[in-house]
Amino acid sequence: MADKLMSCPECNRHVFERDAECPFCKAAIRRSTGRTVATIAAVAMSVAAAAACGDKPTPSVPGVPTVDGGDAPTAPTTSVPGGRGDKTPAPVYGGPPP
Question: Which of 25, 42, 85, 86 has a CA 20 to 30 Å removed from the CA of 17?
Fold first, then answer.
């Protein structure tokens, strides 16, 4: 397996990750396991998911019972000349035929 290179934190020259100190400036090489970045990414994704799943009201569908057991409101009534009268509810788009 090939050795990975990284930048020295002091002189910015390339050094091997396995080295304990920079061979050029003798600065100590900090070793990062990558867990810090993974932890930050996991926390950020969790916060974003929680924010996206906030308390949004669920839309009601006419004729379908709601979670609390009551019926959802029906479609608004319309006045159709020469047909159903003033108080007949309008058919729901995509619903079953009357």
Answer: 42
